TrEMBL record:
<dbReference type="InterPro" id="IPR001296">
    <property type="entry name" value="Glyco_trans_1"/>
</dbReference>
<dbReference type="GO" id="GO:0016757">
    <property type="term" value="F:glycosyltransferase activity"/>
</dbReference>
<dbReference type="Pfam" id="PF00534">
    <property type="entry name" value="Glycos_transf_1"/>
</dbReference>
<keyword id="KW-0808">Transferase</keyword>
<feature type="domain" description="Glycosyl transferase family 1">
    <location>
        <begin position="147"/>
        <end position="293"/>
    </location>
</feature>
<protein>
    <submittedName>
        <fullName>Glycosyltransferase</fullName>
    </submittedName>
</protein>
<dbReference type="GO" id="GO:0009103">
    <property type="term" value="P:lipopolysaccharide biosynthetic process"/>
</dbReference>
Length: 322
């Protein structure tokens, strides 16, 4: 019987859900589903009974108070940066649930060197090994894909409308550049809010909202864009930035977002301010007037390699499960 149970409730097309969908089928370590239903992010979920004779692995940060050992994947600490008073519940959860579980287990996974440093600082416990398992990129994202059709040059945004994504600065900047068009891949539930944002600035005809497209189509959308905009103030990694540069499309980003800067390097434009609309408008105008292609990273972003690193840690924590 496998000695590892995995919480398989992280399932979807973006973020941690995407990570889970890519990693779990690639694991070589024998495992079984944890078998829980319900909302894995509900506060009471942390109190649910779980097996005590197995190591639990979660592709995300959801921890169980009763788990003797649980290997978590802490992609970032963004929740601890949310505005007050909303931050209070996250501070309590991370202090009373996540930190004790991580310390009992003696190891935790993350996805970038930026997040690794932040998690180590937050833990404040040198006995816990923080492992950067990295992240991968689908083979669909490559420079030779055909670009999506477009009558005019456009910018690409992929993500959501949460506060740390800082989308408003891009929408405001697009309003100042009459020739700018913006395509936004957002969860369908956020389309109405995005439409309101565009209408309030008088740019609704220049904003196209996308949802539910597969990797092949997303790669074409990146490839057809003059640039991808990623104005985030906080990220654990920033997968859209990687996907964009893998197709040869540069990224406009805030220089203070260390994880995105780590991923993009010189394959884009680092803006000095996260909130200066004029600076973003200037960068957008230049990207549209003088489009360029960038060279994809040579190596280092491979889902098989990420799964192999996770397998290694799982094997160390539960050697009888190998």
């Amino acid at each position: 019987m496998p000695q590892i149970a995995i919480d398989t409730r992280w399932d979807g097309i973006a973020g941690i859900q995407r990570y889970s969908r890519e990693v779990l089928p690639r694991l070589k370590t024998p495992w079984v589903p944890l078998g829980l239903d319900g909302d894995h992010l509900a506060p009471a979920d942390a109190l649910r009974p779980v097996p005590t004779d197995r190591l639990i692995y979660s592709p995300g940060y959801n921890a169980f108070v009763r788990a003797p050992r649980e290997l978590l994947t802490m992609h970032d600490l963004i929740q601890l940066q949310t505005p007050w008073p909303g931050r209070a519940k996250y501070l309590a959860y991370y202090r009373l649930v996540v930190r004790p579980v991580v310390r009992r287990t003696g190891a935790v996974l993350t996805v970038s060197e930026t997040s690794k440093a932040l998690v180590e600082e937050w833990l404040g416990d040198a006995s816990v090994r923080v492992v950067n398992a990295g992240i991968g990129c689908s083979d669909a994202f490559r420079a030779d894909v055909p670009p999506a059709p477009a009558n005019d040059p456009y910018l690409m945004y992929v993500g959501n409308l949460r506060a740390h994504k800082n989308v408003a600065v891009v929408v405001d900047a697009v309003a100042r550049v009459p020739e700018a068009r913006l395509r936004m891949l957002l969860p369908a539930r956020e389309h109405e809010e995005a439409q309101r944002m565009a209408m309030a600035r008088g740019i609704a005809p220049r904003v196209e909202l996308l949802a539910g497209i597969d990797d092949d189509e997303l790669a074409r959308q990146y490839r057809g864009a003059a640039a991808t905009v990623m104005p985030s103030t906080l990220e654990g990694f920033g997968l859209p930035a990687l996907e964009s540069v893998m197709t040869g499309t540069p990224v406009l980003f805030w220089s203070g977002c260390a994880a995105v800067a780590e991923t993009v390097g010189d394959r884009g434009t680092a803006l000095e301010s996260a909130t200066d609309v004029d600076e973003w408008a200037t960068a957008i105008r230049l990207a549209l007037e003088s489009p360029r292609r960038v060279k994809a990273p040579a190596a280092g972003y491979d889902w098989d390699a990420t799964a192999a690193r996770i397998d290694e840690v799982l094997g160390e924590l539960a050697p009888s499960g190998r």
